[in-house]
Structures are given as structure tokens and as C-alpha cells.
Amino acid sequence: MPERRDVYERLADELRHAITSGRYQPGDRLPSTLELMERTGVANLTVRGAYRMLVEEGLVESVAKKGFYVRRPSAMTWRMTPATRGRRVTADMLDGWAADVEAAGLGHREDISVAIEDSSVPVLGTPVGERLGLKPGSRVLVRRGIRYTAPPEADLPETADSLTDEYYPYDLVRDSVLASPAPASPAEALAALGYRLRGHIDELRPRLATTEERRLMSLPQVSVVLELARTAHTADRTPVLVIHQVHRGDGATFSYEISYPGR
Predict the structure, then answer these.
(1) Domain limit, last residue, from 70, 85, 117
(2) Which of 96, 107, 143, 227 could form a disulfide with 92 if both were Cys (CB 3.0 to 4.6 A apart)?
């Protein structure tokens, strides 16, 4: 009698081929465990073992109380440096997430929470206080966001596609709109405090997703993410904001626009 592992591996091969051959498209619902049990004559645990393999490979996602679906890759184009409109510093120059999602015809939502932390918290290996030029022991205000997108025609739950943290010197913004979880424009809020932004410096690093990132963004067991640290500064190069983002890397394109000075 064949080992159960051999049976569910063969079943996984069959489903994998059906997906890669195009029989099932991204977003399609796959046969239920009951349907596969009746068709193949195998046990429930065997069917679930096959689906577990495909989930770990990133081909399939499990949706609670709905079943198994072909995973939709994050086929987004993220404009990391949007074109400027005149000389005005707009919100999407710092963070064009919402504009990019809407340009792709998707719906979106962001859940924001606010916390106060010690400035020693690292961002890409460097303490955020060091990035902001703060003294050791200083505090930072953090606005944490989990960002969700959803195809307008799909009935699947929204998927978290990225995580974003905004770090500010606490003493600078503690009495501002940024201290609330309500939506707020960092550029406008800082300008109202007398700190008009004039540029930012980016650092990018691809890496494997952590366990917590995989949980929050429903990623496969082995997944690559793109990590961004964006330090925004004023005209005199005073850093007043660090944006730390983690983006899904499966299928996404990250674009930069660089302009050369006239001669």
C-alpha cells in the first residue's frame, strides 16, 4: 500500500500542473477537500497534505470558511519617486501607495495605530534615533500601518500587501495630528509645525520575510520582501521623519524616476 506522503505528493503534482498550465487562473477557487476525496478516493488528511504543500510553495492560499484559491501575485508597480507637480511637496511624493493602488484599479484600506518607543529601535540595522539625529534615550512617536488591497470584482478577503512605520521625534509631534491614528499627511503636518520637507534619502534591501511578516501578509513559508528606509529632511538637511516599509516581493515592480539637471 503506498505511503500517504506519496499519495498527497502525487495529488499536489496534479493540482500544481492544473495551475501552471492555466486551467486554474489566479483568484480561481480550487476543488474542495470533499470533491477531491470523492474523485480520488483518498482521505481528508491526504487532500489537506497536498494543499498544504501548495500553500507553502506560494501557489495556493487558504481562505477561512471558503476553501482554497489560486494565489494572486502582487503584480503591482510601486512608484518609489513619483513625478513632482510644480514645486509643492505633496503627500504622494513621500508615499504614493494609495495613488498606485488606485491607478491599478484596486480598492484599499489602511489600519493605523500609534505608539511611543525608545529611539534605539533599529531600522535596516541602524537605530532610528541615529537616523533622526536624536540623543540616546530620546523617544519617538511611531505611526504603524497595515495596508490592504482587494480586486474590486473579487469576493476574496482583502490582502495585506505591505507594512509601513513612520517614526518622528516625539517632542516635535506629540501635540500634532500625527499623534492620533486618524489619517494625516506627514508633509502637511510637519509643514504646519515649521518643518517643510525638501527631500529624502532611500535605502533598499531585499531579504526573506520574517515569521511575523508572513503572518500579517499571509505569505508562503519562504518569501522575499523589499524593505525600504526613507529618511525625509528639511532644506537645512535636518531629518524629521523616517519611513520604514516592507513590501511583498512576489511579482511586484519597484520603479524610480531620476531627473538630470539642465545644462
Answers:
(1) 70
(2) 96
Which amino acid is located at 168 in the chain? Y
Split into its structural domains, the chain has a count of 2
Q: What is the DSSP letter of 225?
A: E
DSSP E strand stretches across 16-138: 60-63, 67-70, 77-79, 107-118, 122-123, 126-127
**Long-range contacts: 222-229, Cβ < 8 Å, 24+?**
222/56, 222/58, 223/58, 223/248, 223/249, 223/250, 224/249, 224/250, 225/249, 226/252, 226/254, 227/124, 228/80, 228/202, 228/203, 228/204, 229/123, 229/124, 229/126, 229/131, 229/202, 229/203
Closest CA to 181 of 144, 219, 152: 144
Please give the grid coordinates belonging to residue 150: 482587494
262 occurs within a structural domain? no
On whether both 97 and 151 belong to a single domain, the answer is yes
CATH number of the domain enclosing 126: 3.40.1410.10
- Does residue 109 sit in the same domain as residue 210? yes
Q: What is the pTM of this model?
A: 0.76
* In-domain check, residue 203: yes
- Domain interval for residue 42: 4-70
